Amino acid sequence: MPTTTTTTTDDPEESALAPEVAKNDKDPCSSDQELHGGLCYAKCATLTAGSHPCRSSAWSCCAVAAGPNCGEQAGLENCWVHPGFCFGYAVSGHDEVTEQGTNCPTAVGDCLNNEEMFMEQCYKKCSILTQGTHNYRTGAATCCSKQSHFECLWPGNLKTDQMYNIGGGAGDHNSGTPNESHPPMKSLATSQ
C-alpha cells in the first residue's frame, strides 16, 4: 500500500493561505496600503484618484511621484492636507476598513487570506466561522450579523463563542501560519 507524505513547512509565505504579494514588493503593508511613520495607511494614489500619489505625512498627499522620500520634494503648494485621526487621509486601506470595522491606520504586516484584522490582531474570518450568518467581527470572540456598529449593540445580532478567537492557519500543514489569533505578519506583506 502506497504511503502519502504530508510536507510541513514553517514558512508562512509558502502557505496556500498566504496573500499574493507582488514580486520585489518591499513594502511591509498590505497591497492597498503604504508605509509612513511606522504605520500602514491607505495609498494616497487611491485616496486622491491618482492626482496626489505621494504621502508626505499622516494627513497629507502631494502631487509628486510616490516614493520613499517623495515628501522631501513636496511643498505646500502641491499638497492636499486633510487632518484627522482615523479619517481624512489618516485612514487604513479599504480591505482593512471592511475587515476591522475601523478606519484607523494599521500595524505593518498582513493576515492570511482566510483571516480578518480586528484591533491589530488577525482572526479567522467570522464569515467562515459562522457559515455566513454573522460576517462582522465585533470582538475577539464575537461576530455580528449586521454591518452597523449601532445594530451590533443589540445582543440578538451577536454570536459569541471562545472558538471564534482563533487564527486561520490550522489545517494547512504549515507550522508558520498561526492557528491562534496573532498580530499581522510582516512576511505576508513583503516579498523581500
Description:
With 192 residues, this protein is mainly beta. The protein folds into two domains: 25-93, no CATH class; 111-183, no CATH class. Helices cover 8% and strands 19% of the residues. The protein contains three helices and ten strands. It has a three-stranded antiparallel β-sheet, with no helix packed on it. The protein has a three-stranded antiparallel β-sheet with strand order 8-9-10, with no helix packed on it. It has a two-stranded antiparallel sheet with strand order 1-2. The longest helix is centred in the middle third of the chain and has 7 residues, at 94-100. It starts with 32 loop residues before the first strand and ends in a 32-residue tail after the last strand. The relative contact order is 0.20.
Distance between the termini: 42 Å
What helical percentage do the residues reach? under 10%
Which class of secondary structure composition applies to the elements?
mainly beta
Largest sheet: 3 strands, antiparallel
Order of helices and strands, N to C? EEHEEEHEEHEEE
Q: Report the mean per-residue pLDDT as an integer.
A: 83
Itemize the secondary structure elements and their pairings:
Blueprint: E1 33-36, E2 39-42, H1 44-47, E3 54-57, E4 60-62, E5 79-81, H2 94-100, E6 115-118, E7 121-124, H3 126-129, E8 136-139, E9 142-144, E10 158-160
Antiparallel strand pairs: 1-2, 3-4, 4-5, 6-7, 8-9, 9-10
